[in-house]
What we know:
The complex is a heterodimer of chains A (514) and B (327). Chain A is built from 21 helices and no strands. Chain A is an all-alpha fold. Chain A has two domains: 1-36 and 308-514, MetI-like (MetI-like fold), CATH 1.10.3720.10; 44-217 and 271-305, Orthogonal Bundle (MetI-like fold), CATH 1.10.3720. In chain A, helix 1 packs parallel to helix 15. In chain B, helix 9 packs across helix 14 (307-326). Chain B is 39% helix and 20% strand. In chain B, strands 1, 2, 3, 4, 5, 6, 7, 8, 9, 10, 11 and 12 form a twelve-stranded mixed β-sheet that branches. Chain B is of the alpha/beta class and 327 residues long. Chain B is built from 14 helices and twelve strands. Chain B folds into two domains: 2-124 and 241-295, Periplasmic binding protein-like II (D-Maltodextrin-Binding Protein, domain 2, 3-Layer(aba) Sandwich); 126-240 and 296-326, D-Maltodextrin-Binding Protein, domain 2, CATH 3.40.190. The radius of gyration of chain B is 21 Å and the shape is globular. The interface between A and B is large, with 56 and 63 residues.
Amino acid sequence: xxxxxxxxxxxxxxxTAALVLLLxxxxxxxxxxxxxxxxALVVADWAALKFTILQAVLSALFSAALAVxxxxxxxxxxxxxxxxxxxxMGAPFILPVIVAVMGLxxxxxxxxxxxxxxxxxxxxxxxxxxLHGVVLAHVFFNLPLATRxxxxxxxxxxxxxxxxxxxxxxxxxxxxxxxxxxxxxxRLPAVLLVVFLICLSxxxxxxxxxxxxxxxxxxxxxxxxxxxxxDLGRAALLALVQLALVLGVxxxxxxxxxxxxxxxxRGAVRQRWDAGARWLRVQDGLxxxxxxxFIMLPLVMVAVRGAGQVLSLPASAWSxxxxxxxxxxxxxxxCIAAALALASAQGRAAEVIGLLGLAISPLVxxxxxxxxxxxxxxxxxxxxxxxxxxxxxxxxxxxLRIIAPEYARAEADFGxxxxxxxxxxxxxxxxxxxxxxxxxxxxxxxxxxxLSMGDLGVIALFADGETATLPLQVYRLMGAYRMEAxxxxxxxxxxLSFGLFAVFDWGGRRGADA
Amino acid sequence: MKHLAFATGVFVSAAGIAAAETPExxxxxxxxxxxxxxxxxxIEAAFEEVCGCDLKFVAAxxxxxxxxxxxxxxxxxxxxxxxxxxxxxTAAAKExxxxxxxxxxxxxxxxxxxxxxxxxxxxxxxxxxxxQAEFDAPVSFKALAGSDARILIQDPRSSTPGLGLxxxxxxxxxxxxxxxxxxxxxxxxxxxxxxxxxxxxxxxGEADMVLSYTTSLAYHMIAEDDxxxxxxxxxxxxxxxxxxxxxxxxxxxPELADSFLEFxxxxxxxxxxxxxxxxxxxxxxxxxxxxxxxxxxxxxKALLLSADEAxxxxxxxxxxxxxxxxx
Lengths: 514, 327
C-alpha cells in the first residue's frame, strides 16, 4: 500500500472527492437555507425510519445469503452458456422499477403463475403485498448484483490456491473453510452494505408492494414533505437523516471489510478439483436452476407483454430512447472517470464519499440544484446536463465498489513491479492498472449506463414538454391509458438498458479473458 | 420594431427573427395533458390558429408536481398559465401570491355551483371505483368495508386521485371517516404512487376494483370498444375533481394569457377534452358530448369541499388515513 498514490496524482482524486462532496452537500444546504431550520421529526417520520431500516436489513440479509450458493455454483462450474448466464444476472438490477414490479406481479401476483398453480393444486393463494413482498422484490433486484459481486470474489482467489488445496487432498468442506470463507468474510460486508444502501432509498417498490402506509420509507416521507406539503425544511431534515444513516452504516461496514490479501493470480479460468462429486453437481445445478427461474420468469413476462408493441411505438418513444442513450453514455463516462479517480486514492475517505450517491435523496438533490440554478438560468434549459450529472453521481457508489477492490488488488500485486519500472501517471494506468481491472471496469460501466437508462430521477423535475427520457415516456403512456404501448416502450427500455450493459460488460470481460 | 429586426437581420438568423416577433405563451401542465394522445397537441394547433402566438406546453409531473415546480421557481417562473391544478390544490396555489384574478365567465356544466376569482375550470369528473362488469360491486363505502372486495387505491401523499379519495370519505362521513378507513383497511390490496400504477395493476387482474373516474369507462368504450367494465355507484354520492387553470401575475404577455383563458371555455378547447383527457368538459360543447358518454353512470349526489375547506382538513384527514391503515 505504500506507494499507492503515484498511480494517478493525489490531486485528481482529491479534486474528484471534493466535487462529489460539493455536489451532494450544496443542494441539501440550498434546500435547508430556503426553508429555514426544520422542526423535529414527527411520529410518522420515526415509523418511516424504522420501516426503512427493517426492510433494508431483511433485503440485504436475504440477497446476500442466497447469493452465496448461487455465486459458488457459478464459480465452480463450467458449462455451455455460462457466460450468457453471468451476463443475464445483470438484468434485474437494471430494470426500471415499474417494469420489474409488473414482471414480478405476473409471477407472484393475484393472477400470476404462482397463484394459478397453487389454486390448481387446491392450495390457498398467497398474497405478495406487504413487507415480504417488498423484500421479495428487493431480492429479485439485488440477488443478481450480490451474486456478481461475490463471483468477482471467487475469481479473485488465485488458481494456484485451488491447485495447492487439491494436491493437499482438501475436500469441498476444507476448500470452503480455507479459501472461500476468508474471501467471503472480506467481501460479504461490502455486498450487504451495497444492498442495504440500495434498499434504504427504495421508494416505488415499497410503495407499490408494501400494501399501505405502514410500508412508508424515508424516501416516500421526503416525497410527501416536498410534493404534498411543500415543506422544504422537513424534506431537508429527512434527507439529512437518510444521509447520516447511510454514512454511519457505510463507515461501520468499511471498517469490517478489509482490503484483499490474496497473492497474484494469472486471471485464468478457474479449474476446480474439489467439486467433482455427483451430489455437488446436482446441488449446484439445482441452485442455478432455481436462481435462473426466479430471475428469468418476470423478465420473460415483460418481454411477452411488450413484444407485439415495440415496432408500432410512436415516434416520441424513439426520440426519447435516443435522448436516454445519449444521457446514459455521457453519465457513464463521468461516473467511470470519477470512480477511477476515487479508487486510485485507495482510502477510506474516498470510499465513503463515493457512497454519498446512495445516501442522497434524488428528489432533494434535484430540488437543491433547481433552487441553485433558478436565480441565474432556466432550469429547463439545463435538464439534460443535470440529469447526466445526477445519474453519474447515483451510479458512482456501485462503480466504486466494483472498481476499488480490483484497483487495490492490482496495486498490491503489481505496484512494486511498476514502481521498479518507473511507471507513473497515465502510463501506469495504461500498462498496469487497465489490463488488471478491465473486467470490473466493463461491469461498472455497464451498470452505470443501464442505471442511467432506467432512471426516472430528476428529469421529471426539470423536464419541459419536449425533452423526455424513455422511462418518463413509459409513465406518460401509462398515464394516457396506453398500457400496451407502455409495455412495448418498457420492453424497448429493457432491451436498450441491457444492450448497453451487455456491450460494456462483454467488452470488459473479453479483453480480460484474452 | 420591424426596422430594428430588419437592421439586425444581417447578423441573426431568420429563425431568430421569427421567434422574436411571435409572442410566446408558456403553459405549465401535467404530463398526460401534453402527450400525443392528450389534449395538448390539438389545443396547441387550435389556439395558435387564432392567437398569432407560439403556445408552448411545459409538462411538470402531475397536479401537485406543477404546484411544487411553480413554488420552486417563484416569481422567476417562465409560466404565463398554469393548467391542471384541482380544488385540493388551489388554496395553496392562491397563497403563493403568484396568481392573478381572471375575468372569464361561462355557462359551466359542472354539477356544483362554481365561483372562483383566480381559477377557471376546464374539465371535471366523478371519482369512482371501476370494476369488471361481472363483479358484484358494493353500493357504498360501508358496504365495501363489510365485503371482501379487494381494491386498489393511490397514495394521497403522492397522487391527486388518492387525495381525492381522502376528501371523498371526509366529505361523506366527516367525523366518522377514521372508522370508515379502519373498515376499508382489509379491502385494500395495495396503495400505489400514482393513478397509472393502480390502473395498470387492476388491468392485470390484481384486484376487483380500482379508484379512478366514471369517465374511465368512456375510454374503454370509445377507444377500445370494450364494454366489459363498470363504475360502482355509491349511495353517499361521488366526490368531484374539478381541474382548473390560472394566470400568473408576473406573466410578460398578460393579454395573451387572458385570451387563452377565454379560449379555454370555448368549443374549440372544450370539444377536445372528452376523448383526449377522458373527463367531462367544463362547458358542454354545442355538438354535445361524444357518443358513449351518455351511458356513463350518473351519481345522484355530487360531493365537493371548497378549496379552503379542503386545505384546512387535509393534514388531519391524512393523519387519520395513515393511522387507520398503518395498524
